[in-house]
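Hi all, posting the design record for the shared folder.

TITLE: backbone redesign
STEP: 1 of 1
STRUCTURE INPUT:
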């Protein structure tokens, strides 16, 4: 009668023993009723959220010689109390069976792999560099650029000026057309589209410096004797707080500072007829003007030195320069009445370009000039005595 009861009990439970995920372990129940021992097995994992994990089995109550078999998704995966797997995927099912030498296999708990979905590598576009504020001279150009990171797709760029798209400006950088003074305070920015979202950069303000315009005119007589000074007036637009460097066509360069309008330029022209024009104007910021923004010219006629004895000199032989030619020393003999010398009496020497290279106040009849550092060539000696200009002739440096 005992055998019949056990068979009936086994038959009642047998159809339910195939499910590895069953909440009740029927193999352990059968082994208990049939063979009198109570065995079981449980498993753990180092991780259930990564593609790699090590699993450990903990069998208990089983007779010697019992075997632990690992299964992955119902397929054989390995033997022993530990199992290491790689390449696991979300939803994989891992369990183990404990097989005693005699009796039914006992199934462990099931571990399901649950790997979180990897965060997307894409992100919103972020500007690493923005369009920079820049300054250009009138007629110049400016180049703006941006650098970015992120984006959910390929990035498309469109540059704008004052809210209007610039045709063809669809790259990471944008170069303006030549700027006019009217472009000052224009605003430049870029919009980026990544296929899902639009992103707008900061706006950069265009700063344009006005190109200077100049007008040249005469401020004194244009018919002079060699050694006499000439004044030129140069008027420029605006009253910039900075300076302008002005260059004449003859090479002379001088600097105009703020708020002095017109500029008065004093110089000594060379012998002959010369027409003067402004060749170039450069502002402190480097903006230059040539050509169409320069107006006016002045023609100056320079005659030979104005001769004749002046007041305070004694006759036609009242002056002499020696030696002539000279080398390291030039002597000037005036033979003037000492009472004729005044605060404005002086001796001047010019080169053939009309440039003054020496000046000395007169207080004695005889003047000795050190000339060792003078260049070889022809020089013109002039004296001013009692307000009268006197030419002392040409001298030659050997």
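Okay, here is what came back for every position:
SEQUENCE:
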């Amino acid at each position: 009668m005992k055998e019949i009861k056990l068979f009936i009990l086994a038959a009642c439970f047998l159809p339910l023993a195939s499910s590895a995920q069953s909440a009740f372990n029927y193999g352990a129940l059968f082994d208990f009723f049939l063979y009198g021992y109570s065995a079981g097995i449980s498993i753990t994992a180092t991780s259930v959220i990564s593609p790699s994990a090590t699993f450990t089995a903990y069998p208990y109550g089983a007779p010697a010689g019992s075997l632990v078999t690992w299964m992955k998704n119902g397929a054989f995966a390995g033997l022993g109390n530990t199992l290491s797997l790689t390449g696991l995927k979300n939803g994989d099912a891992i369990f183990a069976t404990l097989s005693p030498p005699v009796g039914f296999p006992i199934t462990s708990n099931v571990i399901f792999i649950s790997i979180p979905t990897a965060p997307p590598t894409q992100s919103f576009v972020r500007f690493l560099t923005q369009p920079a504020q820049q300054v250009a001279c009138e007629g110049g150009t400016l180049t703006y650029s941006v650098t970015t990171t992120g984006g959910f797709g390929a990035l498309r760029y469109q540059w704008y000026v004052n809210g209007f798209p610039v045709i063809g400006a669809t790259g990471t950088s944008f170069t303006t057309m030549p700027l006019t003074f009217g472009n000052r305070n224009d605003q430049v920015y870029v919009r980026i589209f990544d296929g899902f979202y639009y992103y707008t950069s900061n706006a950069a303000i265009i700063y344009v410096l006005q190109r200077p315009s100049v007008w040249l005119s005469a401020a004194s007589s244009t018919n002079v004797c060699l050694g006499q000074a000439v004044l030129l007036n140069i008027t420029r637009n605006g009253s910039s707080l900075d300076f302008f460097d002005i260059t004449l066509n003859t090479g002379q360069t001088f600097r105009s500072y703020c708020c002095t309008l017109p500029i008065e330029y004093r110089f000594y022209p060379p012998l002959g007829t010369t027409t003067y024009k402004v060749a170039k104007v450069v502002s402190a910021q480097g903006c230059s003007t040539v050509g169409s923004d320069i107006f006016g010219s002045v023609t100056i006629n320079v005659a030979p030195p104005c001769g004749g004895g002046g007041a305070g000199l004694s006759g036609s032989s009242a002056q002499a320069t020696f030696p002539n030619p000279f080398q390291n020393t030039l002597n000037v003999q005036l033979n003037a009445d000492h009472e004729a010398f005044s605060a404005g009496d002086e001796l001047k020497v010019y080169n053939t370009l009309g440039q003054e290279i020496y000046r000395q106040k007169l207080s004695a009849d005889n003047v000795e000039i050190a000339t060792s550092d003078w260049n070889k060539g022809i020089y013109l000696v002039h004296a001013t005595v009692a307000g009268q200009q006197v030419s002392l002739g040409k001298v030659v440096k050997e």
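COMMENT: The radius of gyration is 53 Å.
Let me know if anyone wants the other runs.
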